[in-house]
Amino acid sequence: MAPVQEDDDDVETAGGLAERVPSRRKLEGPPRPWTASPGLSDPVSGPPPPKVPSGTRVVRPQPLARGDQPRGDQPRRRASVCLPPMRAGDALRGRDRAGSNPPLRRPRPGSDVPSEGGAMKPSRLFSAGWQAVMEGVGHWTPPAWAILGPGRLAPRWLWVGSVDCAERQEPPGKKLLSEKKLKRHFVDRRRLLVRGGRGGDGLSCFHSEPRKEFGGPDGGDGGSGGHVILRVDQQVKSLSSVQSQYQGFDGEDGGRKNCFGRNGAVLYIRVPVGTLVKEGNKVLADLSRPGDEYIAALGGAGGKGNRFFLANDNRAPVTCTPGQPGQERVLFLELKTMAHAGLVGLPNAGKSSLLRAISNAKPAVAAYPFTTLKPHVGIVHYEGHQQVAVADVPGLVRGAHRNRGLGHAFLRHIERCGFLLFVLDLSVPQPWTQLDDLKHELDQYEKGLSSRPHAIIANKIDLPQARANLPELQARLGAKAIALSAATGENLEELLLCLKELHDRHVAAELQRGRQPLRW
Ligand SMILES: Nc1nc2c(ncn2[C@@H]2O[C@H](COP(=O)(O)OP(=O)(O)OP(=O)(O)O)[C@@H](O)[C@H]2O)c(=O)[nH]1
Ligand SMILES: [Mg+2]
Q1: Is 349 found in the same domain as 330?
Q2: Which residues constitute the domain of residue 354?
Q3: In this predicted model, what pLDDT tens digit does every residue of 115-139 receive, in sequence order?
Q4: Of 177, 221, 222, 345, which cross-links 323 as Cys (Cβ 3.0–4.6 Å)?
Q5: Could you give the CA distance from residue 289 to residue 191 in angstroms, rounded to a whole number?
Q6: Atom in ligand 1 nearest the alpha carbon of residue 367
């Protein structure tokens, strides 16, 4: 590691610890005396931070080696910032002297944290990097009006620093995938070849023991082959993890002394909730609840050992049978995304923007049609841990049932939704025609799909032309449309209340039908 150099005289080592670390002293030369100076530069964390007001000391903590604990009897220089004592290894663990890692947040006015001089914890300055340095700018910069003079507006960054931005940043490490890449990961159809495990062979042998001449047959049976089972797992969200072929585990062969072979273990294939299992055009199973299972292929029966064929008329059978091969099938899996509500709208209506506004889902949003290429499910949280799942699917166009646009293949993801949210773009001329088109396409796909419980959302109300269109839309629809703006968040509460109402009604209807409502 390159030696860290003390570059400025105003940087004091915490508790004078550098004097007790001989290796550092050798590298850096004798410690220089501390003198107060307003400048501060740090070669480790890049460009020099802003000037410190004169009279403020900054303490640079030295990394402590184990056993390098400061002893109370040794003379130590006092830092100007009052901090709790540091334990050995704190610096190595990335803790600062104020206790456990504090959030990178500017202290509120009136809080206990001192705001001048001691507000920027020095150890954070050097361990947290440039963000923390910028945070410190907010505290160290003299009041903006002092620089700019009275009556001049201060630029916001002068007093906010980068703290606000840091709080809104995505967690580091995980990069968001683009819609195109996400589509590659999302698979909603699979052809699958499954073979059950082969049964173990039976054994033909005779008991052998000293002074026991006719011990008789003692060949054991083979174990059964393992089944291949499809099991619903709520953690799995697409069929991408399902491979094209599965072979079950074979059973063990029978052994001597009537030992039976071990059965082959069951092989589980994890599939998402809402998987339909088909063989040809015949639907075999609808795995719509977490924990549902379907035996895709049975394991073969184990063979019989010669002991099995022992009979009164045949006291020494030599016959044994081989294990049976497992069942072999070609299955088709089809995923129909399960969600409580489905967002249905033309391309660019703002479905994805709406889902982003009401949930934590992050579908791509852009000003061109067919931005969304795969279904996204977002969860809306309500009081009492109630969760409503809302699915966003690719935009629907007129003639989708004739395979226009992206076709209607993705409409099966809407099919399972308990209720629908029709999203209309209120800023285009004659927005009411959109609803007719959407309903027509839904009915072409499945009769009666459009008459499910639904709400009509008129999006983009923040635009002037949308406001002008609203009265006519309300008059023509005859039903109430929720006018809102996904971009500005205007009137989203009304949508959330309506969503909750639709969900409660859906749950009540499911319970009435004797079905357990879907839980997320
Ligand atoms: N002014 C305004 N623009 C909006 C609003 N909602 C969405 N938009 C814009 O409309 C465009 C399309 O938004 P998306 O959310 O991608 O629309 P979509 O319905 O998901 O589109 P597809 O995925 O292609 O079907 C984007 O440029 C958004 O910024 C809104 O409430 N007001
Ligand atoms: Mg979209």
Answers
A1: no
A2: 339-513
A3: 333 333 333 333 333 443 344 344 4
A4: 222
A5: 22
A6: 27
